[in-house]
Amino acid sequence: MNFVIILLIFIFGCTIGSFLNVIILRSGKGEKITGRSYCPHCHKKLKWWELIPIISFFILRGRCSKCRAKISWQYPLVEFFTGLCFVLIFWRFVQFPFYLVSLFGPWSWSKIVALLILFIWFYFISVLIVLAVYDLRNYEILINLLIPALIIALIYQTGLYFISQRSQVLFLNNYNFNFLAEGRYFFGNFLFPFNLILGLAIYSIVLGLLSWLSKGKAMGYGDPILGLFLGALLNWPAALMALVLSFLLGGFWGAFLVVLKRKKLKSYLPFGPFLVLGALLIIFFGDIILSGYFKLFNV
Questions:
Q1: How far apart are CA 154 and CA 17, in angstroms?
Q2: What DSSP letter does each residue of 191-218 carry, written as one string?
Q3: Half-sphere exposure of 52 (CA within 13 A, CB side)
Q4: Measuring CA to CA, which residue among 162, 154, 196, 155 is closest to residue 178?
Q5: Alpha carbons 7 and 2: distance in angstroms, whole number
């Protein structure tokens, strides 16, 4: 894969990550996301060289140039993670030969549609990062961002299916980018709309029951809505794999914090970041994870 393309996508992702930090921090304060960036301590307006993703943090040595207050590590970490995720989603899609041919072929409707799909997934990844970090900071799901993203995901999945039935675009007949590859047939061969319905159902039923039975204590009321969004993105059976992985990750991390005495058994732990992390791992490495599972247990 061309190193220049990867580098450009990473830089683009880091730049978007810088904007995601603005959304996360200003949404928590109830501020508008427009307007120039400023130091949260002394409110100094930042200059252009103080806004370079990742690099500015180290140029400033993690402190404001005026008041010398510490700058949160959230800034470079979100920027780097967004850049990394953009590279990984690009790498993931070019693993599908039918998509790769359209993306790197001559300019045509296939190439335009391939780029459009890639940028839609950049949007989905960005939403997931904001939701995870915001929940980690505020113990709350950012519903105002989640609901539009859920609607767009449903329109995307439904629209892509119907367009594929009539389109002459090269790869749309193979539009269902299943992140579990051939291993998905282990869970049954469900086509649209049943794979979408099952993906929505597995998240909404499991998370909804946990939220309802615990009256919002064990599981927040926003998590089932986040689950619907993830179900719409992943469909069946990737949604099942991602949900199981989320519970495993959350359980291990919770136990780790208890052992370190950072949390108690009854302490609240935001589950949104683990839902997002489980989904991202399946999106990026779903076929590898499932293949490793089959080999480990000789399935």
A1: 24
A2: -TTHHHHHHHHHHHHHHHHHHHHTTTSS
A3: 7
A4: 196
A5: 9
CA dist 86 and 129 (Å) reads: 11
235 in Cβ contact with 203 (< 8 Å): no
Q: How many CA atoms lie within 13 A of 168 on its CB side?
A: 2
Q: What is the DSSP string of 146-162?
A: HHHHHHHHHHHHHHHHH
Phi and psi at 38, nearest 5°, equal -145, 160
Cis geometry, peptide bond prior to residue 40 (ω within 30 degrees of 0): no
**So where are the chain's domains?**
147-299
CB 216 within 8 A of CB 265: no
Give the span between the Cα atoms of 251 and 248, in whole angstroms: 5
**How far is residue 21 CA from its own chain's centroid?**
15
Burial class of residue 188, CB neighbours in 10 A (0-12, 13-18, 19+): exposed
Burial class (CB in 10 A: 0-12, 13-18, 19+), 124: buried
d(CA 55, CA 18): 11
Per DSSP, what are the bridge partners of residue 196?
Answer: none
pLDDT, tens digit, 9 for 90 and up, residues 128-173: 999 999 999 999 999 999 999 999 999 999 988 888 887 777 777 6
Question: Smallest Cα–Cα separation from 234: which of 159, 133, 157?
Answer: 157
* pTM score: 0.94
CA triple 280-284-288, angle to 5 deg: 120
Helices H, strands E: what count in the chain? 10, 0
pLDDT, tens digit, 9 for 90 and up, residues 78-94: 999 999 999 999 999 98
